[in-house]
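Q: Please design a sequence for this.
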């Protein structure tokens, strides 16, 4: 029997964190197996508080993911700020990011997702440059250590946070082994006025990615998605798709029309149910895809 379990779609689909329906004490290895049972094919390890994973656990996760043809990524600590005010605070965040990369690579993860940080009330371009220099040093350190991962700064849903789509693309253009994690729910929440929720706006974002990062950028996307509640300042909390205003059918139509590919990771409260809704919407969109 063939081991090629992957669905052959340009996108893999999965959850950020172990699916709710996975056995309670199976850990991330059990999560990878559950992802496959659900006919999904990607899992993001939610190492968002701290990394407490042994080398043995990394081997178990890697083997379970390989056996089940599940692509792995890591969501690194929430406590990383590329624009941290003091060198001491930056060094603590840097160590958290490097730890996620080193352990993630051992576990078989190819992509490390993280929140780039806060403007700390600075001019955005000044904060962006500080973040660029620090991220470049992290990337160089990983190359020197032969830790082969892609660093993925995430687009953020609050206006006070670093991480517009433009900023994430600009880091990716300047630094080796960096590509955006495009959270479309955050991009919708960020302006706070309900905008960024139409086919044309989603298509505009994909054009921006293609212009900045080429076809490679479009074909190797890492997407976070969910419904989302927001205020005038941006993101409030994630919602299930059927409880939210986000026009996910238009999003998947744009992704299909542009020939985008990579991974779509559900961050809805109902996790795997959301991932399945997303995959089904994408498959329907593919049958109607036309050149944009
Ligand atoms: Zn995130």
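A: Design:
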């Amino acid at each position: 029997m063939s081991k090629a379990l992957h669905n052959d779609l340009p996108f893999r689909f999965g959850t950020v964190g172990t699916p709710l329906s996975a056995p309670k004490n199976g850990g991330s290895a059990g999560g990878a197996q559950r992802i496959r049972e659900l006919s999904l094919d990607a899992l993001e390890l939610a190492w968002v508080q701290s990394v407490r994973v042994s080398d043995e656990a990394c081997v178990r996760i890697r083997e379970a993911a390989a056996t089940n043809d599940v692509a792995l990524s890591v969501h690194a600590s929430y406590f990383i700020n590329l624009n941290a005010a003091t060198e001491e605070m930056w060094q603590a965040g840097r160590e958290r990011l490097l730890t996620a990369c080193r352990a993630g690579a051992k576990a078989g993860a190819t992509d490390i997702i993280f929140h780039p940080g806060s403007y700390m009330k600075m001019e955005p371009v000044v904060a962006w440059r500080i973040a660029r220099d620090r991220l470049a040093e992290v990337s160089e350190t990983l190359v020197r250590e032969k830790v082969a991962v892609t660093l993925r700064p995430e687009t953020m849903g609050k206006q006070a946070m670093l991480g517009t789509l433009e900023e994430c693309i600009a880091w990716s253009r300047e630094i080796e082994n960096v590509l955006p994690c495009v959270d479309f729910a955050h991009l919708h929440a960020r302006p706070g006025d309900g905008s960024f929720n139409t086919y044309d706006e989603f298509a505009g974002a994909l054009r921006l990615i293609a212009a900045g990062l080429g076809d490679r950028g479009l074909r190797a996307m890492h997407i976070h998605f969910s419904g989302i509640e927001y205020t005038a300042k941006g993101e409030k909390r994630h919602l299930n798709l059927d409880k939210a205003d986000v026009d996910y059918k238009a999003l998947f139509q744009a992704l299909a029309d542009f020939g985008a590919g990579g991974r779509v990771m559900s961050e809805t409260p109902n996790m795997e149910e959301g991932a399945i809704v997303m995959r089904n919407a994408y498959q329907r969109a593919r049958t109607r895809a036309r050149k944009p």
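Q: Thanks. Anything notable?
A: The pocket of zinc ion is lined by residues 75, 115, 154 (CB under 6 Å). Strands lie at 11-16, 42-46, 71-75, 111-114, 150-153, 181-183, 221-225, 227-231, 234-239, 262-266.
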